[in-house]
Amino acid sequence: MTAMTNRALSPPFLRLYALAFLFFSANAILNVILPLRSEALGASNGQIGLIMGAYMFTCMFFRPLAGQLIHKHGPASVLRILLIVNGLALVVYSFAGVEGYVAARMMQGICTAFFSMSLQIGIIDALPEEQRSQGVSLYSLFTYMPTIIGPLLAIGIWDWGGMGAFTVAMIAIALVTGLFGYSVPIQSAQPIQSVQPQSMGGSIRQLVRQRPLLVCSALMLGISVVFGAVTAFIPLYSKQVSGGHSGVFLMIQASVIVTGRFVFRTRIPSDGKWPAGFVCTVCLLASVGAMLLSLSLAWGPLAFYVAAVTIGVAQALLYPTLISYLSFVLPGAARNAMIGWFLAAADLGVSMGGGALGPVADRYSYSVMYGAAAGLAVLAACLVVLNRTDNRSRSE
To answer: Which structural domains are found in the chain, ordered by start?
Structure first.
């Protein structure tokens, strides 16, 4: 391999990105159909938040375990098992009610924990250090590409095709993803057992001692609340905004995420240095987006759709920046499990965006709920300001 070769864009990695695209295609439809279907079945905002939040809340618990098992058995073996379970979860949506949706979301959450860890650990292990952030950004880009057209497709299914078309779509996605996934090789630059993984208790102790991990996890937790509130309630909130359309909002947001991650894939910091100013700016963008959503009832569709842009930029840049930084500064013996803790914090934030903020919307309003999310994003920016220096741990 020459020094100029870009392995992040080589055919094996493009196949991994394509698999990520297929795997997350179902969510692009479910994120719109489930709130609408649940509301039609009589669910409250709190119940809808629970349904939508169950996905990431379950994912949060299984991230650290996923890191351990993938380290022990290798990403390829784990991937093939979870593709079967994911297919079963998608089929459940076609006949389940509100309670069944919670169970299916939990099954999906387990699958996503192992899937994303398998692919991201495979990418991080197989790429040179200077290309890590690009590989993670491209992976993230392909996970969001389905959400460009998925929301509009979901609205079409809901308005014209009904549950019959929804069932066909879920079964088709499950079959195509499973068949394609079994043919995709996952390479690793190091032997599976080359480093002895720590016990779960040991990784928790490392979590407490590793300040970079604590700071990045807290940031991701706070900002992910904004992202989760958008995912869970935009399909319902948009009906209250004059000129608002959830499909258009989510399409704009996804387009910004995909474009941002592609355009900035080589500019996202990938040197192990703490980019405090960059991260603080991204947190403030998320806060601005949430506040614009809060004001959309008074300010109209312009504020509503500008919020899609600012929140999309924040989503495009924050995650790959933080995970690339952590891939450099975390000790190698526990890196996989500790990245699992970081991803778990992101999952918890998305879950809280639906489950914890849903009752706020029930008691007050969507505007108050998004205002509260904006305040959390400001607190995240303040945390960055308080941690301007690179206080990484050197313990290996």
So the answer is: 11-183+200-386 (1.20.1250.20)
